[in-house]
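All the exercises in this workshop are built on plain-text protein records. Instead of coordinates, the fold is spelled out as a row of discrete tokens. Once this layout is familiar, the rest of the handout is easier to follow. The record below serves as our worked example for the rest of this section.
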Amino acid sequence: MDDLDKPIAYGRTAEIFAWGENQVLKLFHAWVGFDAVEYEYRIARTMQSCGLPVPQVGEIIEYKGRYGITCQRIKGISMTESLARAPWKILRYARRMAELHARVHAVTHPTDIPPLNPKMARKILQAQSLPARLREKALTRLEKLPEGHDLCHGDFHPDNILLTPQGEVILDWMDAGTGNPLADLARTSIILKGSIESGQIRHPLLKRLAHLFHRAYLAQYFSLRPGGESEYALWLPIIAAARLSENISELEGWLVAQAERGLS
């Protein structure tokens, strides 16, 4: 195939193209190295072996100096897009997202998945906008909290859940690792709350709905996996500190405030 058509979807690290009749090509941007692509490919194959609802992965290819992964083409829309069309389903979707997240965390000691905590520590060290005193406190707390050995998605939010006639499919496992599920839960909270507080969600009604979604998601998760609320709260400032390494300008002030409030 000499040329690809227009992407059918866009992401921070890649574009998605139709590839043959029943596949798509996740073509990573040129700045994403082969090691990162090979890592996501290995993760995807592991997820398949765990029986999780994920696209069936094909192969790694190189296309005009960029690396990509072919995988099963699944027809559906993201949970975010479905919520925009049918906001009255917000509680149903929040609870369903919690159920899916708990299902991910039920996978213990998965093979070929690296530990989450060392990666988190590196991200905290790389967060240039994080004050030095907060960096030290975040790393100290990270060392003290239980590490865990369960599967963590690392970027679990409604955009990464595809709704299909056959059921939900979980996408984008590039940040997956083994670790403490409560850290992964806190990561999702920081993503959701950040979108509300940073101005990414602007309309007052949509903000209220997003708060409702987050509260329902947490309530359902802890009903499925009781306990851990206090430890979850301890993870929040650590996750906020680590997220600063992603250099999302509109979130920086809010993330620093979260780290400050939770670590002081």
Notes: The first helix runs from residue 34 to 49. Residues 9-72 form a domain with the Phosphorylase Kinase; domain 1 fold (CATH 3.30.200.20).
